[in-house]
Amino acid sequence: MSASNGVKQTALEPDKLNPSLPWQNSGRQEALQGYIKKKVAADVLFDSFASGGRVNANQFFEALWSSGIIRTDPRIKDCYSLMRKLQESDGAVDRSTFHRLSLGDWAEPCVLGEISWALIYGLAVDQHGSDYVHRFVGMEEYSKYESPFTLTKQEVTCESGAALAATLANGGLCPLSGDQVLSPPAVRCTLSMMQVAGMNDYSRAFHFRTSVPAKSSQSGVVLIVIPGVLGLMCWSPGLDSNMNSCRGVHFCEELVSTFQLHSFDIETSFRQTLSYRQWKVESEGYQIMNVLLAAYRGDVVSLRRYLLSGADANAVDYDGRSALHVAASEGHLDIIKFLVENACANCTLKDRWGNTALQEAVRCNQDPAIQFLRKYTDC
Predict the structure, then answer these.
(1) In the chain, at which residue ranges do the beta strands (DSSP E only) sit?
(2) Which strands, in side-by-side order, build the sheet including 221-226?
């Protein structure tokens, strides 16, 4: 259900209505729009290589090799082989396929089973609120509630189940359709329930080992949600004494341990962790300087790397000049094409003197840049 279908709307908190903005974006409406529309890392990576809504696997991996990654690196072996197979069958890879990793019998249908209880609970909280729902369903014993609305016999694939998990990990926003399926408060309640009562009698031990919300079923399915990171579904029918999938539980524990996804994996000066949840990001000033310097030098590889690390393509310096202004004045056509077509740079941004990127190209007599920028009528 989406918000347009009559689902009860939840008032946003004051800090959600007025998010804090970087210093260089204050007072600039164009930059404000770019900041609000910031995309997730997977979308930025896809758009950096996409052409016509699809990514060519050969071009993608050639860019990886040129950045210094070793071709025999075992960490990308599976990704490389899967993308090559997909390209051979489809010609290129689309956005939804680029975001996913599916292994094993992912296309085989499996029964949702008890996993549907958590989903029904989330929908109930979304429509009626947690206070009303908890008058009938206990906060820790919700899984024992017999509801005629459960979908225990519904069949799904691991790929579609992973989309459900990713929606919960994304705060109720479906990553495939962009629809707000559940409200953030309902997602918070659902994940809390999954964390305290999702793995049957093993729930406390599982929470101790992983700290991530999960829900299992006797069909061997495990739905795992790592908030803000990923969502996945495992299906392996072999069950343990707690009626959980043996391999599913083991996989989740190894995943959390390997990538330091535990909520209490704290990095200190005495213990360095390989954290994929916390990125060491430079200050806003250094980010802007690096982006503008890469545009000035015509270095597409470095510019792509900075944007993938979270830099804003529409960020401006103290003169209001963006990377597109710099590239246009220097005549770096490849940088201009990358910024406009892949990074969605705003051609209408004006510097402190009121000049757009097109006007900068005209001022510096950069004919190729002028011809390209004139294709965009808004410039």
Answers:
(1) 54-55, 93-94, 110-111, 155-156, 214-216, 221-226, 230-235
(2) 214-216, 221-226, 230-235
Bridge partner residues of 55 (DSSP): 93
Q: Break the chain into its structural domains and give their ranges.
A: 41-99, 109-258, 280-378
Instruction: Extract the tokens encoding 38.
Output: 């910031």
Would the CATH topology of 109-258 be identical to that of 280-378? no
Q: What is the mean pLDDT of the segment spanning 327-342?
A: 91
Nearest to 22 by CA among 284, 318, 291, 319: 284
Whole-model pTM: value is 0.53
Looking at residue 18, its pLDDT comes to 39
What's the whole-number average pLDDT of the chain?
76
Please determine, for residue 273, whether its predicted confidence score (pLDDT) is greater than 60: no
What would the mean pLDDT of 156-175 be, rounded to a whole number? 88
Give residues with Cβ within 8 angstroms of 268, minimum separation 6.
none
pLDDT of amino acid 81 = 73
Asked if 233 and 255 touch (Cβ cutoff 8 Å), the reply is no
The set of residues, in sequence order, having a beta carbon less than 8 Å from that of 167 and lying 6+ positions away, is 173, 174, 175, 181, 182, 231
280-378: CATH topology is 1.25.40
C-beta separation of 205 from 198 below 8 A = no
Q: CA distances (Å), 67 to each of 64, 281, 299, in order?
A: 5, 19, 12
Class of domain 109-258: alpha beta
Write down the residue that tokens 């691991």 correspond to. Answer: 158
Q: How far apart are the first and last CA of the chain?
A: 39
Query: If you search the block for the tokens 């071709």, which residue do you land on?
Result: 71
Check pLDDT > 90 for residue 223: yes
Structural contact between residues 98 and 198, judged by C-beta atoms closer than 8 angstroms = no
Confidence (pLDDT) at 115? 84
Average pLDDT over residues 63-77: 68
